[in-house]
Amino acid sequence: MSDEDYCSIAEAARPPKADGPPYADCVLCREPTEYPESYKGITLCPVCEWQEAQRTACSG
C-alpha cells in the first residue's frame, strides 16, 4: 500500500510564489514569507509551513 492509501487528504491550495518584494508576513510569527504581499489569505513562512505540515501529518 502507498502512503496515499493512508493519507488521502488533498493538499491545501497554496498562494503563488512572489517574484520579489514586497512579501506577505507569516500569520504565525510575522516573518516574511515566499508569497506576494497582495495575496489575500493565510500565508506561512517556510519554517511555520514545515512545522504545520509535521503537526498535521498522518501517523499511519
Outline the structure in words.
By secondary structure, the chain is an alpha+beta fold. It contains two helices and two strands; from the N terminus they run H-E-E-H. It has a two-stranded antiparallel ribbon with strand order 1-2. Strand 1 (23-25) and strand 2 (32-36) form a beta hairpin.
Task: Please sum up the structure shown.
The protein is elongated and about 35 Å long. Strands 1-2 form a two-stranded antiparallel ribbon.
H/E series: HEEH
Spatial ordering of strands, largest sheet: 1-2
Give a short account of the largest sheet.
Answer: 2 strands, antiparallel
Q: Rough shape?
A: elongated
User: Rg from C-alpha positions?
Assistant: 14 Å
Question: Helix count, per DSSP?
Answer: 2
**What oligomerization state is this entry in?**
single chain
Unreliable stretches: none
Quote the beta fraction. 5-15%
Helix amount: 25-40%
Can you give the mean pLDDT? 78
CA(first)-CA(last) distance = 11 Å
**Which secondary-structure class do the elements indicate?**
alpha+beta
Notable characteristics:
single chain; 60 residues; alpha+beta; two-stranded antiparallel sheet; elongated
